[in-house]
Amino acid sequence: MKTLLFVDCCIRRDHSRTGMLATAFLEHLPEGWQVERLCLMDEPLQPLMEGGFLQREALLKAGDLHHRRFDYAWQFQRADAILIAAPFYDLSIPALLKVYIENVSVDGITFTCDERGLHGNCRGEKMIFVTSRGGFYEGSPEEMGSRYMEAMCRFFGTGEYTCIAADGVDIDPRQTPAILQEAIEKAAKAAKGL
Ligand SMILES: Cc1cc2nc3c(=O)[nH]c(=O)nc-3n(C[C@H](O)[C@H](O)[C@H](O)COP(=O)(O)O)c2cc1C
């Protein structure tokens, strides 16, 4: 059995259009995959600051990589594939997802820094990012959500990167259902090819 880690950052939960893409993906997973769902809205995630920052530095210095604060990083490192769902906020990803990434970016777990430079340690062969955007940003230099996630995929060494986006969902409500349907179909197809 392979494990798909589903990182759910659909802030609006059941009202999320991004969540519809994630659901389509999960419903079309081939046999042999089990899903580990991590709902970021329910996690006690903290940005790196103050005592939490100092504690992390001390643990890394002591080589204590099995402290429970690194559980997110180990879970990310060992997943066979990763599905991340997050809406497009302020030209990028929601701050909550960035905080999660701060928590999984741990030298010695998800990446290593040595004389050869920085290289990823993650086992995952694929990272799939599903998103929805109010405006049309596909291919635009102002789109810094998927481009950032793609860079993080390379950084962590999580294999092949795919982004499935419903673009322009807030522009003309008459077009929204068709835009979502097209993205839902792409998500289902991507899942079948996992
Ligand atoms: C806080 C916030 C910031 C947003 N920033 C942008 C933005 O920079 N560009 C854009 O096109 N849409 C932006 N949107 C619109 C969302 O990308 C769009 O409504 C998306 O479909 C929301 O996803 P959801 O339905 O999964 O919550 C923003 C929405 C919110 C709530």
Written account of the structure:
By secondary structure, this protein is an alpha/beta fold. 36% of the residues lie in helices and 22% in strands. It has six helices and seven strands. The chain has helices at residues 17-27, 50-62, 71-78, 95-104, 146-156, 176-192; strands at residues 2-8, 33-39, 81-85, 111-114, 117-120, 126-133, 160-167. A five-stranded parallel beta sheet has the order 2-1-3-6-7, with helices on both faces. A two-stranded antiparallel ribbon has the order 4-5. Helix 1 (17-27) runs parallel beside helix 6 (176-192). The radius of gyration is 17 Å and the shape is globular. The mean pLDDT is 97. Bound molecules: flavin mononucleotide. Flavin mononucleotide (FMN) binds next to helix 1 and strand 6.
